[in-house]
Write a structure and sequence with these properties.
The chain is an alpha/beta fold. It is 34% helix and 18% strand. The protein is built from eight helices and nine strands. Bound molecules: S-adenosyl-L-homocysteine.
Length: 229
Amino acid sequence: MQIDIISVLPELLQGPFAHSILKRAQDKGLVSINLHHLRNYSTNRHRSVDDYAFGPDAGMVLQVEPIYRAIEDLKSRCHYDEIIYTSPDGELLTQKLANELSSKQNIMVLCGHYKGIDHRVREHLITREVSIGDYVLSGGELAAAVIVDSVVRLIPGVLNDETSALSDSFQDNLLAPPVYSRPAVFNGWEVPKVLMSGNFKEIERWQMEQALERTKRLRPHLLDSVDEQ
Ligand code: SAH
């Protein structure tokens, strides 16, 4: 998979992709993540890419022209299955959407900033808009990092058996059961006995009960979507 991210602050994205699972995925050649500075597509000598919003509202807007040039340049070198704009009013990022995006070949992500981007970009150049939650961030970079992380860990071969995504929360519309590690007793706090029984059938049953109980209590709406499937 190839992921190209356009941003006015690509420095913000260097950290999240340079460690752990995301770094290993790139080292293994399973994904290539490229950061593109929007300023490189500015046509003026100050390399500016924003201007005042039309109308009475204060605030700067990322302009259509440099974004158009950036998207067209990337498109001339690669076919994209999706061109995503990170936006608070976009489709909410869920595990289902992450699963869907992980099966794509190439994705472009455009990060907004300031008051947002010129709406003509959204009308004519974007194929999808994704939000990471009903709150407003200062820029799309952190949202892009969240989207890319949730997608890349699902690409086959990225996770090994120990970190397999199949047993994660949301994969089967259930939250994950609690997990424990050594020591078996700390401070008088005990690990549930069943986990040390060696009886895998019993352990599986306990995990399923826990997953169901936690889902009912913490995310009851997930159980409704089981009926819908
Ligand atoms: N004025 C806009 C918010 C601008 S925030 C509004 O009210 O909708 C600046 C940029 O941060 C946005 O252009 C978007 O790219 C990004 N952003 C902010 N919140 C986000 C969220 N919840 N999910 C995804 N991107 C977000």
